[in-house]
Please model this.
Amino acid sequence: MGLFDEIVGIPTTVVYEAPEWAKWVELGGPGVTLRLPGTLVVPDHPRADLMTHIELRWNVDSLAVSSVKVESLRPEEVTTNDLRSVRVVDLIRTHLQSFVAVHSSGWSFPVRPEVAGAIRKAWPTMTAVSDVAQTYNFARALRLPPIKAVMESYEISRATAHRWVNLCKERGEIADG
Model:
């Protein structure tokens, strides 16, 4: 962080701001929560000296974007090219998971390698199915590709991920959607 940034209070890292009255909302299963509504603030995006603010709220079963604001931190104006280059979904996918609270026992995202190995060995126990479903639901709530999240989290092929997810759906751990 530069001296100027420190003096004027310009964030140099991504932050998530939620008002005091915001409520903890479950994302993709029990124990995975985020305070909503809230604002994801991304500095230096889409270019240096710009700040992107993404206001989020909960809409029935997934995150919804209420508004997007691109603010210039210097005298230069925000151009139409700047606005076109803001990739809202990519910013949410990249940064929001860092601000999610995980309260469930044993489950985390991203899945730790030793847990992934244990799940592969234990498949299809109730605990393993529940963990895979939670990974899928969490990824879907954050607008990440859920099958890819399962594949990468548990180091399995796409076909295996589909089989596992289908079993989770059969057992009622994942709602169709």
Q: What stands out?
A: The helical segments are 3-8, 80-84, 88-95, 113-122, 126-141, 146-154, 158-170. The radius of gyration is 19 Å. Confidence is low (pLDDT under 50) at residues 1-10. Strands lie at 15-17, 23-26, 32-36, 38-43, 50-59, 62-72, 101-102.
